[in-house]
Specification:
Layout (H helix, E strand, L loop, with lengths): L3 E4 L2 E4 L4 E7 L7 E8 L6 E6 L6 E3 L7 E6 L4 E6 L8 E9 L9 E2 L3 E6 L1
Length: about 120
Amino acid sequence: QVQLVESGGGLVQAGGSLRLSCAASGRTFSSYAMGWFRQAPGKEREFVASISRSGGTTYYVDSVKGRFTISRDNAKNTVYLQMNSLKPEDTAVYYCAAEYLKTTVGAGDYWGQGTQVTVSS
């Protein structure tokens, strides 16, 4: 069992930055690919970024490439999402997810409770 707790969300003006963190419980964090997803009001949840177990492979949705960076610290059981040049369309609840022994996250084996990111224009 893995528990995921996100933090770092908030209200920011367009063009600003936020860093989200997702802390995982358990001793097998490095066995999980980690990912970030988001869901805006009235929209389906969408994939944002993922990182492989070692951190050597990352994937991004096209709309955030060049602005967001996913990283992980396996010693701290934490995955991060650095978000720069934020746009109002980035406003959503952001969720952290983990998938066992995979390179990326699809359906996700475990999910966090989400953290709200609001970007004002």
